Amino acid sequence: MAQTMMRKFVLSGTCVGLGIIRRSSSRCLVTSSNNVSMKKKERVLPEEGEITKSVFMSQSTDIYTNLALEDWMYRNMDFTNHHVMMVWRNEPCVVIGRHQNPWLEANISHLTEKDISLARRNSGGGTVYHDRGNLNITFFSSRERYDRKYNLELIKRALFRGFGIKSIINKRDDIVVRDNYKISGTAAKLGRLTAYHHCTLLVNANKADLSKALAKREHGIQTKATESTRSAVANLADIDHKVTVDSLQTAVGYEYLRTPALHIEDGGQGMIMKQRGFQFVNPTDNWFPGLDELKQELQSWDWCFGRTPVFTVSRTFPVPAELLAPSKVYTATQELVINMTVEKGLIDDVTLSIPPGLIESGFHGEASVITHLKGKRFTSEALNALQDAMLTRHLNSDVKKLDEKEQFVAKCFDQVVNTI
């Protein structure tokens, strides 16, 4: 019923298909010259009744495309007289905040094994898992009209009006149900002229996959990067099986359109008819010139991993007795200690503290090994460099396989760079 109403409303408002996006966008675009003049002049903000609203529905399920669209709109559109709520969903992926450490926040080896994308967004906040059971929402407005509480209250009202689900907004601006189960996290980006607030809503996400993708592992990382706060989560579909991503998208969309732009009040059907309605958007370079370039940057290794704040890693590994010199008795536990400093995702400094028992059993040449590691990515690239360095230090060039002691060092190093 709600979807039928939406289709009728879109038709009655002449917001048919994709064509309206090109027209709406062209009206909203602010050129660089206009930006300069706007900065020089004092901004005159419209009255509440002069602000119209649209609900944009992205047709992409690719995380990098949707983040690029979000960034494109933030950079290029003028939201002074026109507020936009964009709804979007993604194939399985992990999205970290702008100032976070992916090796600390996500199970990188699991993501690689399952071909799950990792993305870094432009806003702050913590790490989230997305799949097709998530509804993602972005609220765009002018900087002066940014109001996170308004947006969250609107979602809260939509949940109750559409499904009778009671929820609260906690001190962290999470939306929670049943006292302490989180269904939505939130983050924002505020510029000089434009701002956006975005959040996720768990509808019927795969919680088992979520747990595996965000599983904490022993890592030995020390950093000043923003760390996520772990919370118990719930799916809205577990509370009411009638909640689907489509029905929730419709409920929140109508709540947005029936609410005045600057304060929470039910404006009913009359308010809905004053708005621009639901509009499909096709995030391609044809519709949004420059989008592909933004997408390429957002999916690059240098952005996703290389923008990680400086961190150090320290790990200790006990050496198995069978690898120690058999003629020696050691009073202390023999441990291999690996210390690294990683900057821009690259190994900047590294030390391997080799215990006497391993040296006396024949392991040597750690200095040449360290030289080969500096400047390598904190990934399997560094592991490959370590293995190559241990092979090339053999005087006998016919050696093609690491011995047991070298294999042990490589396995420990592999655990440090989080590839197994």
From TrEMBL:
SUPFAM superfamilies: Class II aaRS and biotin synthetases
BPL/LPL catalytic domain residues: 79-264
Domain of life: Eukaryota
Keywords: Transferase
GO biological process: protein lipoylation
InterPro entries xrefs: aa-tRNA-synth_II/BPL/LPL, BPL_LPL_catalytic, LipoylTrfase_LipoateP_Ligase
GO CC annotation, single: mitochondrion
Signal peptide: none
Name of the protein in question: Lipoyltransferase 1, mitochondrial
Keyword Transferase among record annotations: yes
Pfam name, any one: LplA-B_cat
Pathway membership, UniProt: Protein modification; protein lipoylation via exogenous pathway; protein N(6)-(lipoyl)lysine from lipoate: step 2/2
PANTHER family on file: LIPOATE-PROTEIN LIGASE (PTHR12561), LIPOYLTRANSFERASE 1, MITOCHONDRIAL (PTHR12561:SF3)
Biological source species: Papilio xuthus (Asian swallowtail butterfly)
Family: Belongs to the LplA family.
GO MF assignments: lipoyltransferase activity
